[in-house]
Amino acid sequence: MTNLDDHSWITRGIDPALLSQLERELPPTQLWSLLLAVVEQRATARNAAALAQQWRNDRFVEPAYIDQRTSLELDRHLFAAAAAFEAIELSPLAPLGACSVVAPTSQNRVVSTVRGTEVVSDPTNVLALESARRLRSDPSATVKLATSHRCVRAQAFPKLPGFAAHFRLFCLTTAGHETKDQAFTVDAFIEHIRTHLGALDLLEQHGYEFPERVVTLLATPERRPLADRIAAAFGDLDVKQAELTKPYYDGLRFMINTRGMNGAIPLIDGGAFDWVAKLASHRKLVFVSSALGSQLVAFLFRATVGSRAGSSS
Question: How far apart, in whole angstroms, are the C-alpha atoms of residue 208 and residue 206?
């Protein structure tokens, strides 16, 4: 049986001393320059046929399957719903390790470049960097950011309608100093959930349908009292609760699911993270982030699609 985690073939035939020098000893600028020279030589050797073949077969370069006018209109409504958050447009690139340095994830899940950067795979990690920068300047500030970004991920994705190697996410983040009884965290969660639910309500006025919405709060035993307080703020909703087992989150997570063509779709995901506390070297800083799969919304939940989805269940 093939071991999918065995990457020894990558370095097979390379002198170990040379490999060690490339991996550990060369200064970053020299290494990037060397890799750029290699890539330049590879590009020079390519021809039009190779480009056309890659354009046909490479999942990373194919165009998005959503009409761009649809995406722009969708973003307009989402930003309107998130008026309390500052809108920020990110670079397509982030510092190398923007995800793997602060979160328990593999660098192999992102597309790294030979210039010491990586293609943004999760905008919330990049917004954590920006939030930490601002909070270092003013630790008393509350930083609330929103962005819509096309992400690229190198990991395998489900062979289901609406999933692709690159896709659009609408993200919200809140960062600041924790307050008495962890009120900052509780208030941020409530605002994120309300903002996303308000966004779905607004979209339903513009040709989208989100049937059978379910809000779920997941918490570790230590954070369960916070989940109870958050749930109590939504007395008109049946908020489900469950135990959080994924260490990716800082003890607290929420999800908003709705019914799609193939059953329940995890459309919105958010949680508490320790990323800003790490980046700013300040353990009292809180970071709450959430994201809505806007490309999935455009593909699966427009009213004509929603009606078809409802008849197929």
Answer: 6
